[in-house]
Every structure is written in C-alpha cells, then in structure tokens.
Automatic annotation (TrEMBL):
Pfam families: Ala_racemase_N
Domain Alanine racemase N-terminal: residue ranges: 11-204
Organism expressing this protein natively: Intrasporangium calvum
SUPFAM superfamilies reported for this sequence: PLP-binding barrel
Name the record gives this protein: Alanine racemase
Any coiled-coil regions, as ranges: none
C-alpha cells in the first residue's frame, strides 16, 4: 500500500539542465515538501547541478539544507530577533540571512558579528521587506552581500527591479524571484555591472510534467448495488463498484489551496465545484479503468474510497493507477527515480 512518485530521471534532469542553461546563475529554491520530491532529493540534485547556493523557505529547514547541500544556504524567511536570535545555526558560516529592518540586523550582529546577510526590498508583492529608500542603509550597516526582491507572479517586473537597482547604488548582486529568463537577460543588459540571480523553484523542479507521475495501488474492489451504504458517513451509493485505493489526506490527496477565482470562468468553475461537493459528487484525482471516478466519501488519511460507475470494467487488486495531484501539496510515501 503506497502512493509513489515515479520519475523519469533522464527527462527530469534534462529539464533541470535546460532551466540552468536558460538562466545562468540561478539559485534553486528547496522549501516545504520539496515540490513533492522531498528536500533531500532536491539537495542532491542541486549538488549535481554544481550551483554555489540554494534557497530555503524557513529557518526550520536550515539544518537539513546544511547537512544535504555543501554550498551556501540562503534563508528567504526574514531574520526576526524575537524569533530567531537563539537558534544554534545563526553562527553557521554558510548561512545567508535575509534582513528587512535595522532592529533585526543589530540583533543578528550581536549574535554573530560575522553574519552574512542580504537585504530584502519591499516590492509590489507587499509581503515583507524594507522600503526602497532604506535598502541602501541596511546594506551598508550589515555589509550586505546583495539585495533580494520577491515579485508577484507574472511578468513586467523590469521597471520595478530597476528602481531598486538605481536607488541602492554601488555594485550589488540582486536575487530575484518570479522573473522570466528574458527579464533577467534584459536586466543584465541594462545594468551590466550588476549580477542578477533568479531564485527558481517550480520552473526548475516541475518544468517537464511528462517526466513524473504520481501512482497509487488498488487495495480492494467490491460490487455495489444501488443504495448500498459505505464508509464512515454511510452514504448511499449508485450501482457499480467500490474501489479502494492508496492515497489520502496525509499524502495531500484532494487537499487544495483557495482558488484565486480571478476570472469569470474560474469563478464559475469554483461555484460548480462547490455545488458538486455539496451534493457529494466530487470527482477524484485517480484515473481508474480510463475514467476519473467520484469519491464515495471524503478521502481517509491514507486511502480513498471511489465509486466506479456500472458498466465500467473494474480494476484488479494490486493494479497501479495514476493520480493527478499538485506536487507542491503532495507527500508521497516514496519517490522512485528511474
């Protein structure tokens, strides 16, 4: 019983190599669930790419990164004196801290006078960062190694990044997120004295969707008569077959972030999906016998109950079925790189 991420190693690594070739100097982002592959796997891949630095999301991820990757580790979460000052890894020489405020910088330098820092600028993303007019002072006070900018999704970032480059002054490396390779190339052309390094996660690890697939096992199959009740909630089922498959909420099955609903079409889809959920008619992400059957009830922690319609040939116990999942929310039992 397992939910497994199968990876075509040659195709997956070819996509990584292509991403690095298109964006020289990129900093791989390895955070959270490791984009479904697991952080340890990605540390090894970053080492294979021979990049000098990786970026992690939080200080909680630092020990694993330092152990799994031989180069520098940039922490994208800003250093906060009230939270991080006592962490043992603050003194680690390979660690690069993100600073957004003078009070935090001063506390970091008390904890480690030789601390390495980058200064985050407050962009239109609006999450955290120092206003553009204060970035230069923080850089000077902390002997900053560069400026980091986290941009919104989409394109059109060149002018916003340029404002920071022009305001900060001096020759500084800039670490930028959610920029295209064309934007980075344009910035290098506009400011040839500066180094621009894109922090890349999704477009590096998930670039070729044909290179990986999540798969589940069929654990049980039983015929259903109309009205048969199954599961924790004893919901009546239509005629067909009950198929029990590996993969549930602990793996991220059917776990989704809120929809952005930015367009009329996406809002209509969200409304339709809500109505189907209210009627207990939600389609599962599993493909069984060529169809995507509905959940018989919400997924369990480690398995799911599916209702296969009458007339569809049921699978056999032990069969393997593909699962359509967002890898950024997936926690497979195993990752198999072939």
């Amino acid at each position: 019983m397992a939910l497994t991420l199968h990876v075509d190693g040659a195709k997956w690594r070819a996509a990584q190599d292509a991403a690095l070739a298109a964006n020289p100097g990129l900093v791989p982002v390895i955070k959270g669930n490791g984009y479904g592959f697991g952080p340890a796997t990605l540390y090894a891949e970053a080492s294979r790419l021979r990049v000098p630095m990786v970026a992690v999301g939080t200080y909680a991820e630092v020990p694993g990164a330092l152990a799994g990757f031989p180069g520098d580790v940039l922490v994208m979460e800003p250093f906060r004196a009230a939270i991080h000052a006592g962490l043992p890894q603050v003194g680690e020489g390979r660690l690069v801290h993100t600073i957004t405020a003078r009070v935090d910088l001063d506390a970091l330098l008390v904890a480690n006078a030789a601390a390495r820092v980058v200064v985050e600028g407050l962009t239109s993303m609006g999450r955290f960062g120092a206003p553009v007019e204060k970035v230069g002072d923080l850089m000077a006070a902390g002997h900053g190694e560069g400026v980091t900018l986290h941009l919104p999704l989409g394109s059109g970032h060149i002018d916003e990044i340029s404002r920071f480059v022009e305001a900060v002054g001096g020759i500084r490396p800039f670490f930028v997120s959610h920029t295209t390779s064309d934007e980075v190339a344009a910035l290098r052309h506009r400011f040839p004295e500066h180094r621009f390094a894109a922090r890349v996660g999704t477009d590096l690890w998930l670039a070729d969707r044909s290179a990986y697939e999540v798969r589940a096992h069929v654990l049980d199959v039983r015929p259903l008569s109309k009205g048969d009740r199954v599961g924790y909630r004893q919901r009546p089922q239509p005629a067909g077959h009950l198929v029990v498959v590996s993969g549930g909420t602990s793996h991220g099955v059917a776990m989704e972030s809120p929809a952005s609903a930015a367009t009329a079409r996406s809002r209509a889809i969200a409304v339709a999906e809500g109505m189907l959920e209210a009627a207990h008619r939600v389609r599962s992400p599993f493909t069984v016998s060529g169809t995507m059957p509905r959940f018989a009830e919400p997924p369990h922690m480690q398995c799911s109950l599916l209702t296969l319609p009458a007339g569809v040939t049921p699978p056999l116990v032990g069969d393997i079925v593909p699962v359509r999942m967002r890898l950024t929310t997936a926690y497979p039992d195993a990752v198999v790189i072939e």
